[in-house]
Amino acid sequence: MATEGEGQESGWVAGESSDVLFDHAVHVGAALEGADHDEVVAELLALSGRRRAALEDALARTRYLHPGDDVSRAEDLLRAALRHGDATGYWRIDLTGE
Q1: Is 27 among the domain residues?
Q2: How far is 72 from 86, CA to CA, in rounded Å?
Q3: Mean pLDDT, all residues of the chain
Q4: Residue 34 has pLDDT above 80, yes or no
Q5: Would 8 be classed as within a structural domain?
Q6: Using CA of residue 68, residue 69, residue 71, residue 76, what is the dihedral sign?
Q7: Cα angle, residue 67 at apex, residues 31 and 81 outer, rounded to 5°
Q8: Which candidate in 29, 52, 88, 97 could, as Cys together with 73 as Cys, close a disulfide (CB 3.0–4.6 Å)?
């Protein structure tokens, strides 16, 4: 279990990254039908903080929304980000230099 200091140190509080991912995916899905798919996937990966679970949590939250084109686009974007992260080993890349 992370303490308050650990959450602040990493830059995220538990659940915060999935909130940001969820909000971004739904916003893009609703407002930007013609958005560049690859660019949005890259943004979602960056916002995930290399945590696959954050994307999974955001995807799970879309199931509680009323079905529609914007929700479908949000789900597609989140799934695409998960697939890309899996294919490239994104979750295992360490940028901290430790």
Answers
A1: yes
A2: 21
A3: 79
A4: no
A5: no
A6: positive
A7: 60
A8: 29
User: What is the per-residue pLDDT for 83?
Assistant: 96
As a whole number of angstroms, the distance between CA 68 and CA 52 comes to 25
Residue 69 included in any domain: yes
What is the per-residue pLDDT for 98? 62
Find all residues with CB under 8 Å of 13, minimum gap 6, and list them: 7
- Rounded to whole angstroms, what are the CA distances from 25 to 53, 67, 78? 15, 15, 7
Q: Is the pLDDT of residue 56 over 90?
A: yes
Query: Per the domain annotation, does 62 fall within a domain?
Result: yes
Provide the token pair at 94: 């360490």
Residue span of the structural domain in which 36 resides: 13-89
**Amino acid letter at 90?**
Y
Residues 2 and 84: their CA atoms lie apart, in Å, by 28
Q: Report DSSP state, residue 66.
A: P
